[in-house]
Specification:
10-stranded mixed β-sheet, disordered N terminus, alpha+beta
Length: 445
């Protein structure tokens, strides 16, 4: 059973068929298409004992069963070598070689194509005054400590010459705030910044939308790129400290139009940027302190109160990252792969697995006339992982729609009651490393 067929069955069961692979391939580079075809040809011509579609399932299963060794993941998903009985376990080395043959491109490609469909789906309760709501933010993941991974991914520096204990890679993602499904993502070594990564998928943001960003993404080039793209495309971001601005027009109390100068460095990188740009500034009070957000939303259509209330939803993308690191990865901060290519493959598999769970949860919520964010991700993830074990023995892909329909009926029992967010300020937490850190140790080379 191929993962492409299974994912297609998922959407067809919901009445929203996914385009076949040849149609989806029109939106990706030709070399990726050839690489995917070459993998499929090798699996057929050379009669690989582990076909590529099974290895794709294995990569997704690694995300859903993070605490289990890879051999146990293969056993649970009934991934076995061709010609062997189902109860014959595969060697860890055979599974590792199969992942190396697969590479990272097919998993990344599959995630991006599914995200292109699922991330922009509109649900009855996901509109904000006619606009879809998205959010952009970044997260860091640790890798195993090897010379190869440290050289490729790099790591953060401390106040001394000593580097952080683990190499790290950076993820920047675009999420549908109401469904919590990732609509796009970019992964890179730690040394690459969040703004360049976010710029890679600006064009993917649809029309009639508003995108919420963290203040770390404050960039005239990035924000004007969102605003000047598709029609009726807007953004919202907190004011950065130290900015010099001039008030041009006042719309009301705590609501005005300001003008700022575009830095020479930004104009050097992009000569098409103007010398000055204008933004709307909305100031509101939170626990006795004034907070200001900049936005491109016009004052004639959206009040200051509406703007201030909406920005609080930016936290939803943080919940998505929390669900990945806490619920899916069991608070295991370090990825299990030990080579560069497999690290990328594993993280793309994590994102794909997360989207599978979130999309199914969203469909279940719609079936029960509830909001997708009301489904408990943790319990939905555990439930779907358990069902994958049962479905692994299914012979016909035709059984998938019926099984998923039953699955959504069960997921509908996992609704949670939304509680008000705690008002305590964010604090710096202790490092979650399980080993003591010697502060007097020599710098890592």
């Amino acid at each position: 059973m191929s993962i492409a067929q299974d994912l297609s069955d998922v959407l067809e069961a919901a009445g929203q068929p996914l385009a076949r692979l040849d149609t989806l391939a029109q939106h990706i580079p030709q070399e990726w298409i050839e690489a995917a075809a070459l993998l499929a040809d090798q699996a057929t011509i050379r009669r690989r004992r582990l076909p590529a579609d099974m290895v794709l399932w294995l990569v997704v299963g690694m995300a859903l069963f993070r605490s289990e060794p890879i051999t146990e993941v293969a056993r649970r998903l009934n991934i076995c070598a061709e010609g062997l009985a189902n109860d014959v376990l595969l060697a860890k080395s055979a599974l590792s070689h199969a992942r190396q043959r697969l590479g990272k491109q097919p998993v990344e490609w599959l995630f991006q194509q599914c995200a292109n469909v699922w991330g922009y789906e509109r649900y009855p309760q996901d509109q904000w005054h006619g606009l879809q709501v998205f959010a952009v933010d970044g997260a860091l993941f640790r890798t195993q400590e090897t010379a190869e991974l440290r050289e490729h991914f790099g790591s953060g520096n401390t106040s001394t010459t000593r580097q952080t204990p683990y190499p790290m890679l950076r993820l920047v993602a675009l999420i549908n705030v109401r469904s919590h499904v990732f609509a796009s993502a970019a992964i890179s070594p730690y040394r690459k910044g969040e703004i360049p990564l976010a710029s890679e998928f600006v064009d993917a943001i649809p029309a009639d939308s508003v995108t919420l960003l963290d203040k770390g993404f404050f960039s005239a080039d990035l924000l004007l790129g969102i605003q000047n793209g598709e029609s009726n495309r807007h953004w919202m971001i907190p004011e950065r400290k130290g900015l010099v601005s001039t008030e041009l027009e006042r719309y009301g109390d705590g609501d005005c139009l300001v003008q700022m100068r575009v830095s020479p460095q930004a104009r050097k990188k992009n000569p098409q940027l103007p010398e000055h740009w204008q933004v709307r500034a909305v100031t509101y009070e939170v626990q006795g302190k004034d907070k200001t957000v900049f936005t491109s939303l016009p004052a004639k259509q959206f009040s200051a109160k509406q703007v201030a209330t909406l920005y609080h939803e930016r936290w939803e993308i943080e919940l998505g990252f929390r669900d990945i690191k806490s619920s899916m990865q069991d608070n295991t901060l370090t990825l299990r792969s030990k080579t560069v290519d497999l690290v990328y493959q594993e993280l793309w598999g994590v994102l794909l697995g997360y989207n599978v769970v979130r999309r199914e949860a969203s469909q279940a919520a719609v079936a029960h006339l509830r909001a997708p964010s009301e489904i408990s991700f943790k319990f939905a993830c555990q439930f779907i992982a358990a069902q994958l074990v049962v479905m692994a023995g299914a012979v016909s892909p035709g059984n998938t729609p019926r099984r998923l329909a039953d699955l959504r009926g069960s997921i509908g029992l996992l609704f949670i009651r939304k509680r008000p967010r705690p008002s305590t300020p964010r604090t710096v937490k202790m490092s979650k490393t399980r080993y003591p850190v010697d502060r007097n140790a020599a710098p890592l080379k």
